[in-house]
Design brief:
heterodimer; A: about 375 residues; alpha+beta; six-stranded mixed beta sheet; six-stranded antiparallel β-barrel; 8 helices; B: alpha+beta; OB fold (Dihydrolipoamide Acetyltransferase, E2P); three-stranded antiparallel beta sheet; 4 helices
């Protein structure tokens, strides 16, 4: 989501100079000056779907939690269940407010040292998240550290990502990683986390290391011919893969249950927001997030109204594109739950015209994750 | 450096007008198409719709964003470029060759408020 910000207050990632040298189109995002595109969004999108592309995601936040009660604490603030999940594994879920609204969606890494966790959060929410985490950690025997500024991160994504990470960068062990697992190694004397995760619907890796190491890895990947990709195609890719973006599909007003992400909430444990989410699950919600496909090339954009064929307004678009991989005009929309069933006819009002369509599955694109 | 054609009229919102008798042929400038990036859809009015100078008559859509089109003149739409329905990328290929609508002007004096090529060139800083 775009924000009105003073450019002077914007942060830069460790790769900022590289983006400028590549003549990327730069724009403010989440408090950082970030590359939107280096080539066209379509070229970058297709590089990731068909070969390999890489993203500077150094703006993401890294928060470490350690101590005798670290597991107990993380499980209290996190909707998903981390008990019984092994070192080297990564889990997706949310932190919620007591009313079920979302503080943030995040990845939890269980480190190889007992009672050590890494929480990877959205750039726009780092300060808010850290304040939330610190406040709640007071009741537990554990420490929390925000190390976001000293970590860089590059996402290498696409069917050839494994080849690049194992052959070009030389991390042979990466081939053995399953989806949502990681291992630790070193780069230039600093920790390097090789994580088989991503936000594109393709196989891929996220490489976390020092800011100096990140710049060197980036240069080596550029030399190997990997297409640099901006936030423009990061959004088109994640959208096609049915993945939510905090601020659009999840927010203090849009709970995981409303967003159709209830599978990441585990109710046989206690966590902040559990009671509210259980009540929503039991029927106390008004709106649900759906996919809608329209029969035209016009593009449904965030904020456009969703109407019944009779013209009654029943929802709003949260993200929409003319899908690059599928050549269809599709969107996510929050609609009154009475209209959320698959195949329900719904229309989108785009400027002065109304385009008929229907409810479809949110995962528009068949994802290609490593098993 | 974007292409600018002498003899056309230009609006501040980056439309060009070519005057053919009482008909204004309207498109977007090369500068506008370059700013937009890959155009994926052109939203056009229907023939016989009325358009008003300074008001929206349609939109260009790229992957990332929609950009409204503003009519430089008032009048009745007498033709829309239907080729753009199937090939919106033609606007990227040649923004001056691929016009968007033709309008039968109701008040030709509105043309006086538009810029000439030199003034438009100055506006876009080239």
């Amino acid at each position: 989501m775009s924000e009105n910000v003073n450019n002077a207050e914007l942060q830069k990632t460790c790769l900022y100079d590289r983006h400028v040298a590549l003549q990327a189109k730069m724009s403010p995002f989440a408090g950082f000056m970030m590359p939107i595109q280096y080539n066209t969004i379509t070229v970058e999108h297709l590089a990731v779907r068909e070969k390999v592309g890489m993203f500077d995601v150094s703006h993401m936040g890294e928060i470490f939690v350690e101590g005798p009660e670290a597991e107990k604490f993380v499980n209290w603030i996190f909707t998903n269940e981390i008990r019984g999940f092994e070192p080297g594994k990564v889990l997706y879920g949310m932190m919620c407010y007591p009313d079920g609204g979302v503080v943030d969606d995040l990845l939890v890494y269980r480190e190889f040292t007992p009672e050590h966790f890494l929480l990877v959060v959205n750039a726009a929410n780092i300060d808010k998240d850290f304040a939330w985490i610190e406040e709640h950690a007071k009741d537990f025997d554990c420490t929390v550290r925000n190390e976001s500024p000293v970590w860089g991160q590059i996402a290498v994504q696409g069917p050839e990502a494994e080849k690049i990470v194992t052959e070009v960068l030389g991390y042979k062990e990466a081939a053995d990683l399953g989806f949502y697992t990681f291992y630790d190694t070193e780069y230039k004397g600093k920790r390097l986390i090789v994580s088989r995760t991503g936000y594109t619907g393709e196989d891929g890796f996220e490489l976390y290391t020092s800011v100096e190491g990140t710049v060197e890895l980036w240069d080596r990947l550029i030399e190997a011919g990997v297409q640099p990709c901006g936030l423009g195609c990061r959004d088109t890719l994640r959208f096609e893969a049915g993945l939510p973006l905090y601020g659009d599909e999840l927010s203090p007003e849009i709970s995981p249950v409303m967003a159709g992400l209830g599978m990441f909430c585990k109710y046989d444990k206690d966590f902040i927001g559990k009671d509210a989410l259980l009540a929503q699950k039991g029927g106390e919600i008004v709106r649900k997030l759906v996919g809608i496909e329209i029969e035209d090339k016009a593009i449904p954009r965030a904020g456009y109204p969703v109407e019944t064929p009779e013209g009654e307004e029943v929802g709003v678009v949260t993200t929409g594109y003319h899908s690059i991989s599928l050549d269809k005009s599709i969107c996510f929309a929050l609609v009154d739950k009475a209209y959320a069933a698959l195949d329900t006819p719904l229309c989108i009002r785009i400027r002065k015209k109304v385009f008929p369509g229907k409810v479809v599955k949110k995962r528009f694109y068949q994802t290609n994750y490593k098993k | 450096m974007s292409k600018i054609i002498e003899g056309l009229k230009y609006s501040e919102s980056h439309e060009w007008v070519k005057v053919e008798g009482n008909v204004a042929v309207i498109g977007v400038t090369d500068y506008a198409q370059a700013e937009m990036g890959d155009i994926t859809y052109v939203d056009m009015p229907d023939v016989d719709d009325e358009v008003t100078a300074g008001e929206e008559f349609g939109a260009l859509e790229s992957v990332k964003a929609a950009s409204d089109l503003y009519s430089p003149v008032s009048g009745k739409v007498v033709a829309v470029n239907e080729e753009l329905d199937d090939a919106p990328e033609k606007v990227n290929e040649d923004a001056f060759e691929n016009w968007i609508i033709k309008v039968e002007m109701s008040d030709a004096s509105e043309l006086d408020a538009l810029m000439d090529a030199a003034a438009y060139k100055a506006q876009i800083g080239e």
